[in-house]
Amino acid sequence: MGTNWPGHQELMIPEGLQHASVVDIVSWIPKLGLNSVRMTFAIEMVDDIYSNKTNQTLGKSIINTLGQENGTLVLEQILEHNPQFTSNTTRLEVWDAVARELSKQGVALHLDNHVSKAFWCCGENDGNGWFGEEHFNVMNWIRGWSFIAKHAKENWPSFASVGLRNELRKAASAEPVDWYTWYVHMTRAANSVHEAAPDALIFFSGLNFDTYIDPIPLGKTLNGTAGTSTSNKTAKFVPSDFAWEKKIVLELHKYDFEATRSPCSVFKANWYKQGFQAVNETDPATKYLLPVAITEWGFIHNGTYWNQTTYNTCLIQMVEEYKVSWMQWEISGSFYLQTRPNRTPNTIQGQEEFWGLLNYNWDGVRDPVTVENSLKKMIAALG
Source organism's superkingdom (predicted)? Predict the structure, then answer.
């Protein structure tokens, strides 16, 4: 039972440190009744370590991203709330401090690779969505996992699991978008993680923004794409083929973009087909029983949306029925900077996050009504 704490955007450090201390932000997780957090990161952070770029310090990261005036102000705010840091503290050292505090407060750390190039996720053709796309260098991605998994194992006491890649999705200029390509690269990345951190659970996301992964529990043939480099190529994901057989978790995302009014019986039946077969040993079609986690779900915290569609109610019922883990999107009350290519203006500093559990200043719950009727009921569903 967790939430998401983004750290993958332009500054490449966990959000909110200009408003509150690491200790205070972490404390909200157990206070809300949660036991884990999905920390999102960008491969660019590791690329900069390998290239020894000079922009890795807090001071340079913030000022380069936010500009001299605003960056100086935000840096001062971060250091005021977090005096253990200096302007020369590196991004990775900030992550280390957050990880240590998570451990002190009994929170399991799930590390998710959200993007390669550090900015908001996700959109089609944004360069981050599929293997070989503009910003998605596969070799750097695998190298990044080898580095960060080893570092986490050695330095982050409550490090428990990884999400190999967030919301894989179609792209016009990339490797073929098919399950065969997924198989080749995801299993290679899993090998790298397992070699570096053999105790870590490994979460596999599906296709189309991680909305379905049913070919894996159903044991389907994973095909390439005719007329491309994967034409006539096939594979099968057989857990026993891998050293990490006992570490596999499947992840799914579910939002309410359609503003669903479907009865829960229909909602659950449709969603079940996307991958929940993995937890149902009574389903004759299920070939591989595997854990499932809903690593992103959520909606605006305005006190009313929770009851305006059937999404919230049906989601709670799904968790109660199948007892799957989940991570709410998200704890953040605001962002340092948010860049969205499809928005005008496309870059906003200090953007408020109305889906966040916390308020803009990260010092209180944004909407107790939503927490009472959604988060707490999701927790109870696993009770």
Answer: Eukaryota
* Band of residue 340 on the pLDDT scale cut at 50, 70, 90: confident
- Which residue is it, tokens 């981050």? 128
Give dist(CA 149, CA 171) in Å, integer. 27
The residue type of 361 is: N
Q: How confident is the model at residue 344 (pLDDT cuts 50, 70, 90)?
A: low
**Position 341 pLDDT exceeds 90:** no
Residue at token pair 């009472």: 372
For the segment 248-269, the average pLDDT, to the nearest whole number, is: 97
CB 334 within 8 A of CB 354: no
pLDDT tens per residue across span 21-40? 999 999 999 999 999 999 99
Side-chain-facing half-sphere of 190: CA atoms under 13 Å = 23
d(CA 95, CA 113): 14
The amino acid at residue 110 is H
pLDDT at 343: 66
Place of tokens 């939002």: 255
- 158 CB-near residues (< 8 Å, 6+ apart): 99, 102, 103, 106, 107, 108, 109
DSSP state, 236?
A: -
